[in-house]
Amino acid sequence: MAPEIAKYLTMAVPRYTSYPTAPHFHPGIDAATQRGWLTQCDPATPISLYLHVPFCRQVCWYCGCNMKLAGPRDAPLKAYVDTLLAEIALVAEALPARMSVGHVHFGGGTPTVLSGDDLARIMAALHARFAIGADAEIAIECDPRTFDAAKANVLGGLGFNRASFGVQEFDPKVQAAINRVQPPHMVAAAVEALRAAGIDSINFDLIYGLPHQTTRMLLATVTQCLALEPSRIALFGYAHVPWAAKRQRMIEAEALPGAAERLEQANAAAAALVQGGMVAVGMDHFAAPHDPLAEAVHTGRLRRNFQGYTTDAAPTLIGIGATAIGRTEWGYVQNESETGAWARAIEAGRLATARGLALTADDALRAHAIEMLMCFGAVDVDAVSRRFAVSPAWADEARALLAPLAADGLVTLEGSRIALTSAGRPFVRVVAHAFDAYAARLQRRHSAAV
After folding, report:
1. With a threshold of 0.85, does the pTM exceed it?
2. pLDDT, average across residues 398-417
């Protein structure tokens, strides 16, 4: 690998699922702020909902999410759902009307750890408080190790129409090293059960850079996944951040692939997915040609939020549950991450907002530019400047920072257009970082660029 490329591999940069990014949120944004923002929402504009369920039956050592081990007991889950229902009511009461909803996403954790009855209670509350469109996308994250046909039938009956599975890697040695053993037949059975229940839109998550993983292993996993004909595949790089996610200390750092090996795995898997008929979406997603995500690439409607790449264009995303992050036109909010603190706030009749950030005009401008880069690999500075009625000089510093990347063949700077080259596509986070006005304000350890 050329040294001018290698130096970018280990740069620690954000994933830019928001801008400004979550480390810049602060406690000056509280429940009163969030309530004020919700009150101002346009009743005629649809919103989106994200519900966070932090519980899992088993611990995966690679996971960096806010997760609680549920174990065999159901009482903590039912108590969590009770509080979730109360929060749904509080949020709905803060809005100016019974709002229309175009996207609902259950994330975690493992939302399917909840019983069918509890999932039904949540969906009933959502339908009672919001106008969920007949064509709304209702998605849920699943774990094939704790999934069966009965749960698939519950999801189908409740109106879920998209499901996601964390496949990660099928090689047994890698699975043992990350404490997530799920042979291919287990995932295939879960997919079959979902399709039998009428849920045809199925997503897989794959991870490169895992302990003991090789390019050969990952390509074999890609082949097995393509045979199951998923609608979407996300290909993420493993973020080894044991200082932030203590469970990752169970993974031997010596077993992790090096930076050059990670890039090889990412490029080989991406090429195999495209060769297998998937459409490349942004930096790490792939979609079947008929999937709305693939169509959004061609129509320019692709967007990026806390769930990754999406067709969701709603200006308001309301996060419900511990740790959940929300977005409005005026700023970002995040709930208390500790479930006890979150529950106490809701039980006291107030929103559980712990921190957030109010957007400035410059934030909105840079957020749009970064989203264009992350979604389409290019941004026209003049077009962005016209949209926000500012001088193109706002991007001068970014262009200067990108000059070395242009010299190294990762990006082109032609007129007002800044575009990634094919070699630069894996480094889109590095390019986006040049537009980040907050980059020098907070020293925080992020995951590697690739």
Report:
1. yes
2. 96
